[in-house]
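Risk register update: the risk of archive-format incompatibility is retired. Evidence:
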Amino acid sequence: MSFPLEIRPLEEGDEESLLETFEAAFGRSLPMETWRWAFRQNPAGTQVQVALRGAQVVAQYAALPNRVWMDGQERVFSQVVDSMVHPDERGGLGRQGTFSRTAEAFFDNHGLGGVGGGAVSMFYGWPVPANRRIGERLLGYERCGQQHALVRGVGDNPTSEPESHAGLTEAKLSSFNEQALWLWERCAPQLGASTVRDSAWLSWRYLCHPEHTYSCLGVRDSEETLRGLAVGRAVEQDGKRVALMADWLVPTDEPDVAKMLLAAFEVQAREWACEAIALWMPPASPWFTWFQVQGFGLRPTSWQRVVRSFDRRVDMEVVQAGWWYQLGDSDLV
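Archived output:
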């Protein structure tokens, strides 16, 4: 006899069963250390809803929350990731199926204004096509269009070595302190809605990742104040080695810092033996044009961005033109 379906928030002790279903659903394993990093160590908290039959987790709907500053207030934007249902439960992918019921319970718990008292203004993601279609049909996903990247070949720019600017020095960062927040605060008025990039978030996202190693490049002034930050790592993409810039944080009125930082990132890309540098930049950002002036071309990716807003202040206009996000706000780098 089949056990009845129980849907509830994640509890301690669910982890091993959840990872068994993850492997059954995705055909690959997820190390416990990586799962804990993503869902237990995130400084913004844990957002996971599970469905169980007996002691077995048979579905999950989950998101990675980020603290976001918008219009002088803190909000929460969360990226939906690793949502799944066990193959044995896939016969019911309609509105009353296991997956949909788990997802709606998740939104009830975590969405702003929901019965669970949640605080998330907007959920977002770059789902694979099958999940996107299910989300659009059953879960209120709104498609925002194809995701584009800015791409430039390594060595294509004539100023490919770090330039010398009075009082500025470039360094690799192995830790973050309160200066990370100071830098983000100087940039924030130019960004619109953006994840608060303080030392806790940057350390968790980049320095503490259990599987990936990121290079964190900083530019400091003569007083050792952090003036700019670029983070990235090398990946294999379509048969090429590419340096993905996961984060770029520079005040728009400091072009010398920007030029020095980009040149340093290109040197790092050469050390990684990469053929190209790629990054995401919202079209509304002044940096979108600046990078194109530096020789970057706009290229479509295979990803479609989707959102589901629970906050009337976070409408499609904000999503399209007022939200500053980087590759590091996704799980794609």
